[in-house]
Structure formats: C-alpha cells, structure tokens
Amino acid sequence: MQHSADGQPDGTATVQFPRPGFLASVFREFNADQGPDPDGSAPGPAAPGTPGDGASGDGASGGGASGEGPAGPEESVAAHARAAALTHHRTLTVQAERDRLADLLRRAALPVSAMDFESQLRHYEPRPYSADGPETGSEAEPRWADFAPAGPAAADPDGTPARRLLDSGYQRELAQARLTHQRALREWRTRRAEADSPAVDESRRVHEAAEEARARAVREYNESLEECRRAYRLSEPAAVESLLERALAAAETATQDLPAPCRAVFRPLTRTAVLDLDLPPLGLVPSLTGYRLAPDGDIVPVPRPPADRATDYLRLVARLALRALQAADAVDTDEILAGVVLNGWLREPGTAEPLCLVSVDADRDALARTRLLPPATPYEERDDEGVYADAEQDEALVRLRQLGAAVTPDPYGRVGVQPAAQAGAAVPAAPDLSANEFAQLVRDLLTRGGLAEWSVRLRGPAGLVATGEGAPGSALPGRWVVWASRGAAPVSAAEIATLAEAVQEESAERGLRLTTGRFADEALDLTGEEGHRHIHLVDGDGVRELARTHLGLPLAASR
C-alpha cells in the first residue's frame, strides 16, 4: 500500500512484477508469444534502477549489476520445466502402449464366427426391374369402382336417394375422384404404349439376362461348395485344409492390426490337423511402466520386472492359441478330426529357424471337455496392476494348460519347447507323430482288427498301455493287454516279462507288445518259451503292414 505524507494509507497499491527476462524464458518454453509488460510498456531490457533489475539505487543487490547472477536460476527452472514436460509425454506414450495391449487382449477374446458349410451357402434373391412400378403387362386397367367415393350419409332416413345426391360435399368428392381416375387411366395407357417400344424391351431383356447370370453364379458356387463338402466328408486333405484355413482366417478379423496367420496340415492317417500359428513380436508388450524425473534433472525410464512382461506376452499368446483351437473345433461339424496339434512359432528377423514357444496336443475328447472361448473379461482393471495380472490367475493360460500344453517359461529369454508334432507330410513316420496321434493310430489299428471296449490305462510321449476285449471269432478274441511304444531302442526281454505280469494282474488272456522299432533277440527267445507264448509281438514292419491293410494308408518308414 502507498502512504500519504502523514503516514496513512491512501488506498493505492504498488505491484511488484517479475523481471521481463524471466517471463520471456517461460513463454519460450511453452511456445507462447510474449505480450506487453504488465505496466503496458513494450518488452525489452529493464531500465536501470527499476525493481528487480539487480541494481537498486542503494546497491543492496550485491553482485547482480552485471545481470548474469539471476540468469542461472532462471535457466535452471526453465530446463526443469522442459524435462518435466518431456517426462510426462514419454509416460503418456507408454500408457498408450498399455492401452493397446489391453484392447488386443479384449478383442482376442471375442467369439469366433461359425465358418462351416452351412454358413457359407449363398442365396439368390431376384431384383425387380428398375422401370416404374410393376410390369405393365400384369397391371390391370384402373377401374372407377376403386376411385368412387362412398355415398353421403342420410341426414333424413325418410328422404329419397335423389335428395342425398344433391349434397354439396359429396359432389366435390365425386368431382375430385373422377379427375383422379382419369389421370390414372391416362398414365396407365401411356405406360402400355411405352412398354411396347423396342428400347424398353431391350432394357428388360438385359435385366433378365443379368438376373439369370446372378442366379447361375449362386447355383454354381453352392454346387462347388457341396463338392467340397463331399470331399471333406471323405477326409481328403485338400478339402479339410481349405475349410480349416477359411475358419482360421475368419477368426483373425477381430485383430486385423495384429497379424497372426495360422496354417493347417491335415493327416488322414491319424485324422489330425497340425496348425502352425505365427506369434506376435515380443516388442508388442511394453517393457516400461513409465518415466520419472531424477533430482539431477535426468529423465529415467522405469522398467517392468521381466517376469511380468513375460506373463503379459503369454496371456496374449494363450488367447490366440485358444481362438485357433476353437475355430478348428467349431468348423468340424461332421467330426472328421480326431485331434488337433497347435504349435506357436516366434519368427524373428535375422534368425534362421523359428522358435516354438507353445505346443498343444489335444484329442477331440479334450477339446470337448475344455471351454475354448477365452474369458469374457480378458483382463481385470485394478489400481495396482491395471491390464497386468498374474499368470497363475489368467483363465486363458489355465485353460491352455488343462489341455496339456507345453508353454515356454521365458519367451524373452528365447527358451523354446519341443513341438508335439511337425506339420510335415500327410503320411508321416512314427517319430513324427504326436502322443495323441500315436495313441489314435494304435487304437484304430486294433479296433479295425476286432478289439473293442478300448480303455487306455497309461499314456505318455513314448507310448501307451491299454486293455481291450475282442469278440469270439474275431482276429483278436478275448481280453488283451496292449503295450505300444515307439523308439529306436530294441525292446528287451525285461519288458516282455513286465507285460506278462500286467496280463496276469488284469486277468487277461493275452498280451500284445507293439513297437515301431524292433525286438531284441532275447525278447524273441522269451516269447518262444511255454510261459510266455500268450505274448504276441508286432514290430515296425508289422505296424506299417497293419496301417496299409486296415487304414488304407502306408505309414512312412522311420528315417
């Protein structure tokens, strides 16, 4: 406040403004135009002796006469503001990457549209001729009865009909109806005359020819689709693979911005589809939680724990794998497939061979028991985690592991898993089969030979142990214990003795030792003895012969 000569306040105030140099630096940081000073003067260097210029009349400001002393703190404040704005901008970029991951997780969990043969049928609906209204040849001549107004109401029931016809309102309606009828009659006669012109006839012929072509195209497409359906029901590989890849391509429509193509190979020998899924790049998952500004002014990135980042990537992989499995299972309405093998491959630029990060070997029963649709809420928004969640609590990963999937523990460490089967030849060798494929092959061979009531007791990557019951008079009568394995090592006599003990424990009559390799001489000698003659042996050559005889497809020899 200013004071009068007697020391009393006079009601006016003196305002101290920051020096113009500081304001200019702040405006430059925000790209703003520097306006006039608060006192109305133009911007420029402060006059000597003004408040805040560092050189007061009594010299109390010390060494600020040169103007360089205050410039250091002002520039420091401006640099700090720039660093804070840049930190905020970079943190927003990380937030956008996090939101994109959340959106991909949501869309990857959407239901897959059905792509079976019924949904692919086309229907022909004829389009009317573009001329005005319906065809004139079928249009009837306008009749006066359709335009005549209703008679007037009788005001006097005892009056004559002639008096009612003299009603003025009725006469106006009658005159208007006659005009409308005459106009409709003229238009009808004009259309009939124009319909007989050569131009209209030619236009109608062109329209009819186009409609006939449309109907023929729809009919031919449906006939070709029916041919594909017959080939699919006959388990022809080309037809089955075409149907599967259509379904897999349709499943990708929800995430077109995330290329994850999936190819299919069908093996008629085991009625198994092998799917190769290309996984998204590892850089899709954010590696940072944001940025922070250090006390010294440096912008420091805040990394996420590697385990959390790996979990988020596997959550996305699990949804893509479940979506592919659901598409293959939903399209197989005629139950041609006995199982599905899915391998997820990471293909990185500069690497010669892709890396398998996930592999699933599921038979039809396992697919039917497992709900393949990802959860309706693919991520849970929480204050501490947001889109991120623990792998043990993620439903998609839990369901994938329920199918016995092999999942890499560390995708960013490039730790791969062994593929359950390779998408190779349609008639593979025994080592190229998955565990479910080998079990299905053994079951098909023996059930075709007459062994019914098949029950698997043990199953693993190397083989299986099962029991079966053959009808009297069949090729395999009585109760059997079957031990089937694949491998290069010869079957020893100890394994034959173990099978004989299993036959006794199961109260069976015979035992069958099947291998895709060969038997050691000691094993052959043991089955020739009296106590082991109920054990029958089938080596690799016998398995291939059975496949050719009973299944109509040769099993390729082991390499």
Q: How would you characterize this protein structure?
A:
This protein has about 550 residues and is of the alpha/beta class. It is built from 14 helices and twelve strands. A hairpin with an 8-residue loop joins strand 5 (about 340-345) and strand 6. The longest helix has about 40 residues, at about 70-110. It is flat and about 125 Å long. It starts with 19 loop residues before the first helix and ends in an 8-residue tail after the last helix.
Structure summary:
The protein is α/β, with parallel strands linked by helices and 559 residues long.
What keywords describe this structure?
alpha/beta; five-stranded mixed beta sheet; 12 strands; flat
Strand order of the largest sheet: 1-2-5-6-7
Poorly predicted ranges (pLDDT <50, ≥5 residues)? 1-19, 32-71, 132-136, 377-389
Distance between the termini: 102 Å
Number of helices: 14
Kindly estimate the percentage of residues that lie in beta strands according to DSSP. 5-15%
- N-to-C SSE string, H for helix and E for strand: HHHHHHHEEEEHEEHHEHEEEHEHEH
Biggest pleated sheet: 5 strands, mixed
What's the β-strand tally?
A: 12
The pLDDT mean sits at 78
Structural class: alpha/beta
Shape: flat
Q: Rg to the nearest angstrom? A: 43 Å
Helix content: 25-40%
